[in-house]
Amino acid sequence: MSGPELAGFLLPLGVSALRQATPLVLAGLGGICSERVGIVNIALEGMMLAGAFSGLVAGRLAGPLVGVTVAVTVGMLVGLTHLWATRKLRLNHIVSGVAINLLALHSTTFLLRRLFNQADPPVEARIQTMLPTALFTGLALALVVVFHLLLYYTPLGLRVRAVGESEADTRMAGIDTARVKMMGLAASGVLAGLAGAYLSLAQVGRFSDDMVSGRGFIALAAVVCGRWTPLGMAAAALAFGAFDALQFQLQGSVALPGELLRSIPYIATVVAAMALRPRPPADLGRQEE
Amino acid sequence: MNPMRWLPVAAAALLLAGCTQPAGNKTSGAPGAKGKFSAGVVTDAGGIDDQSFNASAWAGLKKAIDEGVVEGRYIESKEQSDYQTNLSSLAEQGYKLVFAVGYLMEDALKEVAGRHPETKFAIIDGSAPDLPNCVAVKFREEEGTFLAGFLAARMSKTGAVAFVGGMESPLMKRFEVGFRAGAETGKPGAKVLVKYIGSWVDVARGKELALAAIKDGADVLMHAAGKGGLGVLDAAAEKGLYGIGVDADQDGLHEGRILTSVMKRVDVAVYETTVNAAKGDWKAGERVLGLKENGLSLSPMRFTKSAVPAATLSAIDDLKARIAAGELKVPSTDAGLKGFVAPAVK
Question: Is pTM beyond 0.80 here?
Answer without folding.
Answer: yes
